[in-house]
């Protein structure tokens, strides 16, 4: 665990989290990377040092602090081709930003091509000294973070070209694969009668998981850094990029219980041989694998989640009742092998969108990539409809918006609208055909913000747009000189490489 003022060294290391050795791209030499932990109001100064050497994977890097608003510091958002050029090998870059208004469960990951699939992912926790849910739990420390990740035995470039299925699910960096050795699984230790706040983070490249702890109910209190009214469930589906905090009371007989992360789709193997499992172990229980079973009776439905204190969605309480109403329909073009949103695939521009604006581009139509940049006026209510697609087209897609959280006025899996007290979050499952996830937010944060599918292969295939929010204010932002140096250095790196 590291604090808000820290170095983060990015390097290639050979690891075998599931018993299979491969070279990976890691932060702090571990998978997942070190937990970054601070508190609400902190100023974070994270110095990212690029020591990457392995040419079979990306050697540039950027880091995105997923869910952090970056108010006034869009240059520190870490999205390659949108807010910065990559950091070159043997170079470093200081990300400096404050977190004055947010608390909860976030994460960080590379935002260059599909690099985070090669390992660069970690938890980012912001504690709230005035947490309104504090009286509901006794323990919330490093031991209560549960990260779910999909893992491959090939580099992300090869996985992408070959559309390879994940080999293993890593829970807190440990897991097993089909035909692999029975390596030890992650253990979460608890003491009887205590109430735990577990922070579940889906740092997946692709996979959605159904998460459960045998024999225990989970009370959801947070979704993606936004507090919710407490909601009791026995399992929850969590998509790539999403997070939940749940409260679990250790009130069952002392023993071992399975923690399950069942990959939802695409024929990934289930729980045989200890796959997709970790262990909840009570103090006093034998060191043994559990024998518990589980059938879900009350899974989480997003539509049942309500923002804490029930704030209503901004804008008028009917579909299309915002100041700006956008329908972003996605399709797949088989010929070009790319996803398109309203007819355009996102092809990363060489000059990041932020640099284009700072260099004088003032109108959305002057910004590259053409057709993928939308201008949003300041201080307006925006409604975005994201119609779902079929499983064949890779749905349901989890869409993540940078720079904001939003009210989910219609869930991807529901036909109802809720303008009264919808959950707020930053990554939403758009559901399947016939679904229409609909979100609202207010443009109170100038910046070029990515909206994209968090299945990293889909982002690479163009499933993204950029919102240029309040261009006049963006053009007044002043990134540090080190930011201005990134693009020339990266251009140099690329041309020396040829
Ligand atoms: Cu978690 Cu655009 O990122």
Automatic annotation (TrEMBL):
It is an enzyme of class 1 (oxidoreductase). The keyword Iron-sulfur does not apply. SUPFAM superfamilies: Cupredoxins (SSF49503). Its cofactor is Cu cation. The keyword Amino-acid biosynthesis does not apply. Gene3D superfamilies: Cupredoxins - blue copper proteins. Its EC number is 1.10.3.2. One of its GO terms (molecular function) is copper ion binding. Keywords: Copper, Disulfide bond, Glycoprotein, Metal-binding, Oxidoreductase, Secreted, Signal. It is found in: Secreted. GO terms for cellular component: extracellular region. It comes from the Eukaryota. It catalyses: 4 hydroquinone + O2 = 4 benzosemiquinone + 2 H2O. Residues 12-129, 142-285, 347-470 form the Plastocyanin-like domain. Pfam families: Cu-oxidase, Cu-oxidase_2, Cu-oxidase_3. Belongs to the multicopper oxidase family. This is laccase.
